[in-house]
Amino acid sequence: MKTYLIYICILFNIVFLKNLTLHDYDNPSANHILDSTIPHDNSDLLIIVGMLGGIEFYDISNPENLNHLNNLQLSGGGGGQGGGGTKPNCIVASGDYAYVTTNRGLGIINISDFTNPIYLGIVSGTDNYILEDLDINSNFLAVAAHEDGTLLFDISNPENPELLSLIEGENVWTVHFFNDYLYVGDQSSLNISIIITDFFDAFLTVSNVLNINLSNSIKDIETGHYGNYIFVALGSDGIVLIDFNEGNNTYDILGEYDTSALANKIDFFDDALFAQRIAVSDWDDVEILEWNGSNLDLVGFKNTTRRTMGVSTKGDFVYSGEWSSVQVFKYGEINGPDIDLSTYELNYPYVDNGASYIMSVDVTNNGNSILNIIDAYTTNSEFSYTLLNDLYPGETQSIDISYTANAMNASGSYRIYSNDTDEYEVMCETNGNINGANIGDVAPNFSLPIIANGAGTFNLSDYLGEVVILAFFAPN
C-alpha cells in the first residue's frame, strides 16, 4: 500500500492545473530579438525590439491574436539584415513616446500613431555611452549605462530629454521604478534609491537607501502589487524574491527559484490581483512563477525551442519575444493534454562507423487529460528509438534515441504527433558526427591576435584544463 501511494505522488508531482497554451505565432522582419514591452498606459500595444531588422508594433486589443501594425527601421541602417546601422536594444514607452537604447545612444520614437511610428533620432550627448535597460516614472527616465552607471533624465519635454543626474555604478545592466523608488541592478548589487523632489515635483536629488548583495549579476527587476515585493532575475541563478521594508529600509529574502536555464527578463501579472505571479524569459523556455506565501513555485512552463529573451504580460496572456519570432501563450486551466519535451535538440558525440551512442529526451504531459500518441518516429534511419506510450496527466516517459553511425553528418529529427490541440506536432532535432568538433571531442587548437584588453596572441592550448567560452558578435 505504501509503495502504491509513493508511486502516485511521483507520477503526478509535476502536473500543472494551469499552464501555458499556444494561441498565436508571428515570424516578423525583426530578428535577434532582445526586448518587448506593453506600455502601462496602453495595454493594446505590444512593441518587439530586434537588434537586426528593426522594431515591430502589434495591436493586441484582442490579446490572443498578434495584429501586426508596422515595422520601424531606425535611420542609419535600422539594424538591417546587412548588420550595419543603428541597432536597437531595450525599449520603454509612455504616452505618445517610446525611448530605445541603441549602439548609437538613446533614441526617441513618436508613437502617437501606432500604425506610423516616427523615429526622431538620438538624444544629444548619449552617443558615447553603452546603454542597456531603461524605465519611466512620470517625468523621469532612468537608463542603465553599464560602467558609466545610471543616467537620469527629465522627460517633461519628451522630445528633448534633459540629463538630471549620473548615478555612479560598477556595471549597471537594469533599472526599475516603483513610485519614488529607483531600483538599480549593478552587477550583483541591487541598489535602492529614492528620487527626492520639491513641492512642484521638480527634481532635487537622488538618495541611496539600501544596497543588497545577491548571488549573481542582475538581469532584470520587477515589483509586485504593493512595491515591497521585488522580483530579481539573476541569470543562471534563477529568480529571487525580496521583501523590502520601506519604513526602516531593511529587507528579507523570501524565496528563490532556480530556473532551468538563464533567467533574463521578467514581467509581473498586474491583473492577478490576489497573486504575486511573474513570467520569466528563461532562454529556451518561458516559466511562470508564483509566491504562495511561503515558497516561490513553478506553476507554468513552456519550452519555446528558441532563444527566449523578451517577455510581456497582459491579463492571462504572455508574449514571448524569441530569436526571430513572437509567440502568444495563455496561462490558465488546460482541459486537454499538454506535451512538453526536455530538449528540442540532441547533439551526439563522434562515434566510429558501426558504433552506437544513446541519448534521451523526456516527454511530459503537463495537461489534465491523457496525451494520446498518434505517431512517433525518427526521420533518419541511423537513429532508432524506444516506443512512446500514451501519457497520463503529470506522467513523463524517457525515450532513448540511439545513433548508429554509417556516414558523416547524419541529421534528422524525432517527431511526435499527438492529441495536444495547440501543438499537434513537436520535434527534437538529432545530429550525429557533424563536421568539425563534436560534443565531447578535444577542441582543435587555434591562435588569434589579442586586439583589446591586452596584447599578443591568444592560443587555446595555453588554457588546457580550463573552461573557455567563445562569444561571437556581429560587427557594429
What do you see in this structure?
It is a single chain. With 476 residues, this protein is mostly beta strands. It has two domains: 315 residues, 7 Propeller (Methylamine Dehydrogenase, Chain H); 93 residues, Immunoglobulin-like. It is built from one helix and 38 strands. Strands 1-28-27-26 form a four-stranded antiparallel beta sheet, with no helix packed on it. It has a four-stranded antiparallel beta sheet with strand order 2-3-4-5, with no helix packed on it. The chain has a four-stranded antiparallel beta sheet with strand order 6-7-8-9, with no helix packed on it. A hairpin with a 2-residue loop joins strand 7 and strand 8. The chain is globular and about 80 Å long.
Summarize this structure as a short list of keywords or feature phrases.
476 residues, mainly beta, Methylamine Dehydrogenase, Chain H, Immunoglobulin-like, 2 domains, four-stranded antiparallel β-sheet, 1 helix, 2% helix, disordered N terminus
Query: According to CATH, what is the topology of the largest domain?
Result: Methylamine Dehydrogenase, Chain H
Oligomer: single chain
Identify the overall geometry: globular
Measured as a percent range, the helix fraction is under 10%
The CATH class name of the largest domain reads Mainly Beta
